[in-house]
Amino acid sequence: MVQQWPKAFCDLKNRKCLRTPNNFTLHGLWPDNYIGQLSNCAGAAFHAITDQNLISRLESGWPDLLQLNYKGARGQSFWKHEWVEHGTCSTTPKDYEAYFNLAVDLKNEHYILRTLRQSGIQPAVCTPSGQSTVNIYGVNSSIVGATRSQIQIRCKINKQNKKKPRTLLYEIIICYDSTGTTVINCPPPHIGQTCLQNSGQVDFL
Protein backbone atom coordinates (compact mmCIF):
# COMPACT_ATOMS: atom_id res chain seq x y z
CA MET A 1 0.00 0.00 0.00
CA VAL A 2 1.59 3.23 -1.18
CA GLN A 3 0.72 6.55 0.44
CA GLN A 4 2.05 9.85 -0.88
CA TRP A 5 2.49 13.29 0.63
CA PRO A 6 0.34 15.52 -1.64
CA LYS A 7 2.42 18.68 -1.27
CA ALA A 8 5.53 16.84 -2.46
CA PHE A 9 3.64 15.41 -5.44
CA CYS A 10 2.40 18.87 -6.39
CA ASP A 11 5.73 20.57 -5.79
CA LEU A 12 7.52 18.32 -8.26
CA LYS A 13 7.46 19.57 -11.84
CA ASN A 14 5.13 22.41 -10.76
CA ARG A 15 2.12 20.16 -11.19
CA LYS A 16 -1.13 22.11 -11.36
CA CYS A 17 -2.87 20.41 -8.44
CA LEU A 18 -6.48 21.36 -7.82
CA ARG A 19 -6.34 20.04 -4.27
CA THR A 20 -3.53 19.47 -1.77
CA PRO A 21 -4.86 17.70 1.34
CA ASN A 22 -2.85 18.13 4.52
CA ASN A 23 -2.73 14.38 4.97
CA PHE A 24 -1.16 11.39 3.29
CA THR A 25 -3.31 10.07 0.47
CA LEU A 26 -3.27 6.77 -1.37
CA HIS A 27 -1.17 6.47 -4.47
CA GLY A 28 -2.08 2.85 -4.94
CA LEU A 29 -2.45 -0.71 -3.71
CA TRP A 30 0.07 -2.59 -5.83
CA PRO A 31 0.20 -6.41 -5.68
CA ASP A 32 3.46 -8.26 -6.23
CA ASN A 33 4.66 -11.85 -6.10
CA TYR A 34 7.75 -11.28 -3.89
CA ILE A 35 9.87 -11.09 -7.05
CA GLY A 36 8.43 -8.03 -8.70
CA GLN A 37 5.36 -5.88 -9.06
CA LEU A 38 2.43 -7.34 -10.99
CA SER A 39 0.60 -5.23 -13.55
CA ASN A 40 -2.07 -5.33 -16.24
CA CYS A 41 -3.51 -8.74 -15.38
CA ALA A 42 -6.71 -10.24 -16.75
CA GLY A 43 -9.60 -8.72 -14.85
CA ALA A 44 -12.93 -6.98 -15.12
CA ALA A 45 -13.21 -3.84 -17.22
CA PHE A 46 -13.53 -0.59 -15.29
CA HIS A 47 -16.85 1.21 -15.40
CA ALA A 48 -17.45 4.58 -13.78
CA ILE A 49 -18.20 4.18 -10.07
CA THR A 50 -21.71 5.33 -9.18
CA ASP A 51 -21.84 4.21 -5.53
CA GLN A 52 -21.76 7.58 -3.75
CA ASN A 53 -20.47 6.09 -0.51
CA LEU A 54 -17.48 4.59 -2.32
CA ILE A 55 -16.88 7.81 -4.26
CA SER A 56 -16.84 9.73 -0.97
CA ARG A 57 -14.38 7.28 0.55
CA LEU A 58 -12.08 7.53 -2.46
CA GLU A 59 -12.37 11.30 -2.66
CA SER A 60 -11.20 11.47 0.95
CA GLY A 61 -8.55 8.74 1.00
CA TRP A 62 -7.57 8.23 -2.64
CA PRO A 63 -8.18 11.54 -4.43
CA ASP A 64 -6.93 12.51 -7.86
CA LEU A 65 -5.01 15.67 -6.97
CA LEU A 66 -5.35 16.93 -10.52
CA GLN A 67 -9.16 16.56 -10.67
CA LEU A 68 -12.15 18.13 -8.92
CA ASN A 69 -14.98 16.41 -10.78
CA TYR A 70 -15.37 12.68 -10.24
CA LYS A 71 -18.33 12.21 -12.55
CA GLY A 72 -18.03 9.78 -15.46
CA ALA A 73 -15.07 8.00 -16.98
CA ARG A 74 -13.01 11.16 -17.53
CA GLY A 75 -13.33 12.30 -13.93
CA GLN A 76 -12.34 8.83 -12.68
CA SER A 77 -9.40 8.29 -15.04
CA PHE A 78 -6.92 8.03 -12.14
CA TRP A 79 -8.94 5.31 -10.44
CA LYS A 80 -9.38 3.54 -13.76
CA HIS A 81 -5.61 3.58 -14.29
CA GLU A 82 -4.96 2.13 -10.84
CA TRP A 83 -7.52 -0.61 -11.38
CA VAL A 84 -6.34 -1.62 -14.85
CA GLU A 85 -2.64 -1.57 -13.97
CA HIS A 86 -2.75 -2.92 -10.42
CA GLY A 87 -6.23 -3.88 -9.24
CA THR A 88 -6.65 -6.51 -11.92
CA CYS A 89 -3.74 -8.35 -10.28
CA SER A 90 -5.34 -8.25 -6.82
CA THR A 91 -7.24 -11.01 -5.04
CA THR A 92 -10.49 -9.55 -6.45
CA PRO A 93 -9.73 -9.15 -10.18
CA LYS A 94 -13.42 -9.25 -11.05
CA ASP A 95 -14.59 -6.78 -8.42
CA TYR A 96 -13.00 -3.35 -8.55
CA GLU A 97 -15.25 -1.93 -5.85
CA ALA A 98 -13.92 -4.54 -3.39
CA TYR A 99 -10.36 -3.59 -4.38
CA PHE A 100 -10.94 0.12 -3.78
CA ASN A 101 -12.74 -0.46 -0.48
CA LEU A 102 -9.89 -2.70 0.72
CA ALA A 103 -7.31 -0.05 -0.18
CA VAL A 104 -9.13 2.64 1.79
CA ASP A 105 -9.64 0.25 4.72
CA LEU A 106 -5.91 -0.49 4.83
CA LYS A 107 -5.05 3.19 4.66
CA ASN A 108 -7.36 3.94 7.56
CA GLU A 109 -5.68 1.27 9.68
CA HIS A 110 -2.46 3.28 9.79
CA TYR A 111 -2.83 7.04 10.13
CA ILE A 112 0.72 7.91 9.10
CA LEU A 113 0.58 11.63 9.80
CA ARG A 114 -0.71 11.09 13.33
CA THR A 115 2.00 8.49 13.94
CA LEU A 116 4.68 10.94 12.83
CA ARG A 117 3.24 13.76 14.92
CA GLN A 118 3.31 11.55 18.00
CA SER A 119 7.05 11.28 17.40
CA GLY A 120 7.39 15.05 17.06
CA ILE A 121 7.71 14.93 13.27
CA GLN A 122 5.62 17.64 11.64
CA PRO A 123 5.12 18.72 8.02
CA ALA A 124 5.96 22.30 7.12
CA VAL A 125 2.29 23.23 6.91
CA CYS A 126 1.99 22.57 10.67
CA THR A 127 5.04 24.55 11.80
CA PRO A 128 5.10 28.28 12.67
CA SER A 129 7.98 28.89 10.25
CA GLY A 130 6.30 27.03 7.38
CA GLN A 131 9.44 24.92 6.99
CA SER A 132 10.27 21.42 8.13
CA THR A 133 13.43 19.40 7.59
CA VAL A 134 13.24 15.94 9.12
CA ASN A 135 15.61 13.02 9.59
CA ILE A 136 14.60 10.08 7.43
CA TYR A 137 15.76 7.59 10.07
CA GLY A 138 13.39 9.18 12.55
CA VAL A 139 10.53 8.89 10.06
CA ASN A 140 11.35 5.24 9.50
CA SER A 141 11.65 4.46 13.21
CA SER A 142 8.33 6.12 13.99
CA ILE A 143 6.31 4.17 11.42
CA VAL A 144 8.12 0.86 12.00
CA GLY A 145 7.29 1.26 15.69
CA ALA A 146 3.61 1.61 14.85
CA THR A 147 3.37 -1.13 12.21
CA ARG A 148 5.92 -3.47 13.84
CA SER A 149 7.19 -4.28 10.35
CA GLN A 150 9.78 -2.95 7.94
CA ILE A 151 8.39 -0.34 5.56
CA GLN A 152 9.72 1.44 2.49
CA ILE A 153 10.29 5.19 2.21
CA ARG A 154 10.76 7.00 -1.08
CA CYS A 155 12.03 10.51 -1.65
CA LYS A 156 12.22 12.67 -4.76
CA ILE A 157 14.49 15.55 -5.66
CA ASN A 158 12.99 18.82 -6.83
CA LYS A 159 15.58 20.27 -9.18
CA GLN A 160 13.72 23.44 -10.11
CA ASN A 161 16.27 25.44 -8.17
CA LYS A 162 19.41 24.01 -9.78
CA LYS A 163 21.68 25.73 -7.28
CA LYS A 164 19.84 24.29 -4.31
CA PRO A 165 17.81 21.17 -5.19
CA ARG A 166 15.57 19.88 -2.43
CA THR A 167 15.09 16.28 -1.32
CA LEU A 168 11.41 15.72 -0.52
CA LEU A 169 9.70 13.08 1.60
CA TYR A 170 7.44 11.59 -1.06
CA GLU A 171 5.96 8.15 -0.34
CA ILE A 172 5.51 5.70 2.53
CA ILE A 173 4.89 2.05 1.69
CA ILE A 174 3.37 -0.48 4.09
CA CYS A 175 3.29 -4.10 2.90
CA TYR A 176 0.55 -6.67 3.50
CA ASP A 177 0.17 -10.38 2.89
CA SER A 178 -1.93 -11.62 -0.02
CA THR A 179 -5.11 -11.54 2.06
CA GLY A 180 -4.69 -7.85 2.80
CA THR A 181 -5.15 -8.44 6.52
CA THR A 182 -1.65 -8.78 7.98
CA VAL A 183 1.21 -6.30 7.79
CA ILE A 184 4.46 -7.94 6.71
CA ASN A 185 8.03 -6.75 6.23
CA CYS A 186 8.56 -4.93 2.96
CA PRO A 187 11.52 -6.08 0.88
CA PRO A 188 14.64 -3.92 0.89
CA PRO A 189 15.69 -1.26 0.28
CA HIS A 190 13.66 0.07 3.19
CA ILE A 191 14.94 3.61 2.77
CA GLY A 192 15.43 4.75 -0.80
CA GLN A 193 18.90 5.90 -1.81
CA THR A 194 17.57 9.34 -2.69
CA CYS A 195 16.42 9.79 0.91
CA LEU A 196 19.94 9.18 2.20
CA GLN A 197 21.52 12.10 0.38
CA ASN A 198 22.32 15.08 2.60
CA SER A 199 22.84 12.77 5.59
CA GLY A 200 19.20 11.68 5.58
CA GLN A 201 17.80 15.19 6.01
CA VAL A 202 14.70 15.69 3.83
CA ASP A 203 12.06 18.37 3.46
CA PHE A 204 8.60 17.43 4.73
CA LEU A 205 6.56 20.07 2.90
Summarize the structure.
The protein is an alpha+beta fold.
Describe the protein:
The chain is an alpha+beta fold. The chain contains 7 helices and 8 strands; from the N terminus they run βαβαααααβαβββββ. The longest helix is centred in the middle third of the chain and has 14 residues. The radius of gyration is 17 Å and the shape is globular. The mean pLDDT is 93. InterPro entries: Ribonuclease_T2_eukaryotic, RNase_T2-like, RNase_T2-like_sf, RNase_T2_His_AS_1.
Global Rg: 17 Å
Helical proportion?
25-40%
Low-pLDDT segments: none
End-to-end C-alpha gap = 21 Å
For this structure, the CATH topology is: Ribonuclease Rh, Chain A
Number of beta-strand segments: 8
* Number of separate domains: 1
**Tally of individual helices:** 7
Strands, helices and their partners?
Blueprint: E1 2-4, H1 6-11, E2 25-28, H2 52-61, H3 72-75, H4 77-85, H5 96-109, H6 112-118, E3 133-135, H7 136-147, E4 152-158, E5 166-173, E6 175-176, E7 183-184, E8 201-203
Antiparallel strand pairs: 1-2, 1-5, 3-8, 4-5, 6-7
Highlighted features:
205 residues; alpha+beta; Ribonuclease Rh, Chain A; four-stranded antiparallel sheet; 7 helices; 30% helix; disulfide bond
